[in-house]
Amino acid sequence: MMKGRIEVTQGDITRLHVDAIVNAANNTLLGGGGVDGAIHRAAGPALLEECRTLNGCATGEAKITRGYNLPAKWVIHTVGPVWRGGGNREDELLANCYRNSLSLAEKYDIKTIAFPAISTGVYRFPVERAAEIAVREIKNFLERNTVIEKVTLVCFGEASYQKHLAVLEKFINQ
Ligand code: AR6
């Protein structure tokens, strides 16, 4: 049953005491702005050192590192698509980010995981459309998986939070 295992919250993902947080990274995995910058700052320089050994990450794929100084034990780094109008496989690539991150979490026996709103910042993916993809993919995954107990979608700012909440309610009620 999916209900109760997926939640939407508002705040700073780097503060969460969960088994893993997901990073909305870029193809280099060598840091950047937004949530990526915040995660690297909070984790400390050892995170970048480990990231250097990973040889980057393709869009839609995911790689895992330790969390270092973060309260989270693991960081799952995924790379969302840059929004280029919607006709360049953006939806499919964003769905892959959620699916591949959750598969990796399952392999590492991760029970609680938090996602930021991947691609909806610097990469300009429309928030509502991204939220629909996120909730659909998480729901589909949780219906088949029994290891992951809780998935949190962490929104930055009230506008993003309200949009995600509306999408989650729609999915739960259908
Ligand atoms: N906690 C939770 N969410 C956050 C936080 C935080 N501390 N900080 C920002 N967000 P973005 P993208 C939200 O731009 O669009 C980086 O430079 C933010 O408000 O971080 O996937 C990478 O290196 C937005 O809702 O990621 C890449 O180059 C969401 O996180 C590029 O940005 C994602 O925004 C990736 O762009």
From TrEMBL:
UniProt xrefs under Gene3D superfamilies? Leucine Aminopeptidase, subunit E, domain 1
- A Pfam match is Macro
Q: Which residues form a coiled coil?
A: none
Q: Which SMART domains match?
A: A1pp
Q: Report which superkingdom the organism of origin falls in.
A: Bacteria
The segment(s) forming the Macro domain are: 1-172
Question: GO: which molecular function terms?
Answer: deacetylase activity
PANTHER family listed in its UniProt record: GANGLIOSIDE INDUCED DIFFERENTIATION ASSOCIATED PROTEIN 2-RELATED (PTHR11106), MACRO DOMAIN-CONTAINING PROTEIN (PTHR11106:SF27)
Q: What is this protein called?
A: Macro domain-containing protein
Q: Which organism is it from?
A: Desulforamulus profundi
